[in-house]
Each structure stands twice: as structure tokens, then as C-alpha cells.
């Protein structure tokens, strides 16, 4: 199966149909961006412009195949849940930990 996510016109709500049937209210903050998480691991970023037109971008690929159709998103994979949240840059750009030394004992004796 698949899931179709389509914005409801003149509002900040999304209609989800397919494996999951629901209407999601986008938590509209000062930032026009929001995140959609799907159970297959896909992470989508949506943005609203001043005319409430929605644009989509894949932030992280999951198991499903993502297709865009004008303002809608098709995700072709079996879905168990879909969630929406405010944009957080830490989710989109994960923290890179510092590189560990390969041979810590050799580094200690090299000095």
C-alpha cells in the first residue's frame, strides 16, 4: 500500500489517506517549516509560503519510495503511523561526534 499526504486548501492541515487515514494539524510556528515523520523511516520537510501553498522536500530517506505530485506526497510502503512536528535543525542536521583515535596507546607513546 501507500500513503498520500495532501494539504487541505486555505488551512495549515494535512489530509493523510491510504494505510493511515487522518487529518493532521501542522504546528504553525514563526518558522514556516515543519517535519513529517513516517513509520518507514522517511522524514519530510514541508514549508508554507504566504499564500499557504505547501512545498515538500525529503530530509531523510526511508524504506519507501517518495513521489511528489504538485502539492501532494506519495510514499509507497506499508505505513503504521504518521506524525507531524515543528522544525528542529538538530533533527535535520545530526551532530557529528569527534573522531576517536584509531590506536590510543600509540598516540600516547609517540609524544
Instruction: Evaluate the radius of gyration.
Output: 19 Å
State the secondary-structure class. mainly beta
Give helix % range: under 10%
Instruction: Average the pLDDT over all residues and give the rounded result.
Output: 84
Strand-residue fraction?
Answer: 35-45%
Q: Helical region count?
A: 2
The strands making up the biggest β-sheet line up spatially as 3-2-1-8-7
Number of strands: 9
Unreliable stretches, pLDDT < 50, 5 or more residues? none
Largest sheet: 5 strands, antiparallel
Our measurement of the CA-to-CA distance between the termini, rounded to an integer number of angstroms, reads: 60 Å
Give the overall silhouette. elongated
- What series of H and E elements makes up the topology? EEEEEEEEEHH
Oligomer state of the chains in this structure: single chain
List the helices and strands and how they pair.
Elements: E1 3-7, E2 13-18, E3 22-25, E4 33-38, E5 43-48, E6 54-60, E7 65-69, E8 72-76, E9 82-86, H1 89-92, H2 104-110
Antiparallel strand pairs: 1-2, 1-8, 2-3, 4-5, 4-9, 5-6, 7-8
What's this entry about, in short?
With 111 residues, the chain is mainly β. Helices cover 10% and strands 44% of the residues.
Tell me about this structure.
This protein has 111 residues and is mainly beta. 10% of the residues lie in helices and 44% in strands. The chain has two helices and nine strands. A five-stranded antiparallel beta sheet has the order 3-2-1-8-7, with no helix packed on it. β2 (13-18) and β3 form a beta hairpin. The mean pLDDT is 84.
Fill in the keyword field for this structure.
single chain, 111 residues, mainly beta, five-stranded antiparallel sheet, four-stranded antiparallel sheet, 2 helices, 9 strands, 10% helix, elongated
Amino acid at each position: 500500500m501507500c500513503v498520500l499526504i495532501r494539504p487541505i486548501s486555505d488551512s495549515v492541515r494535512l489530509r493523510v489517506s491510504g494505510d493511515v487515514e487522518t487529518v493532521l494539524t501542522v504546528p504553525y510556528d514563526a518558522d514556516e517549516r515543519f517535519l513529517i515523520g513516517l513509520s518507514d523511516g522517511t522524514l519530510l520537510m514541508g514549508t508554507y509560503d504566504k499564500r499557504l501553498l505547501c512545498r515538500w522536500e525529503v530530509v531523510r530517506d526511508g524504506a519507501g519510495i517518495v513521489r511528489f505530485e504538485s502539492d501532494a506526497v506519495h510514499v509507497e510502503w506499508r505505513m503504521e503511523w504518521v506524525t507531524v512536528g515543528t522544525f528542529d535543525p538538530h533533527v535535520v542536521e545530526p551532530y557529528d561526534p569527534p573522531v576517536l583515535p584509531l590506536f590510543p596507546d600509540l598516540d600516547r607513546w609517540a609524544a
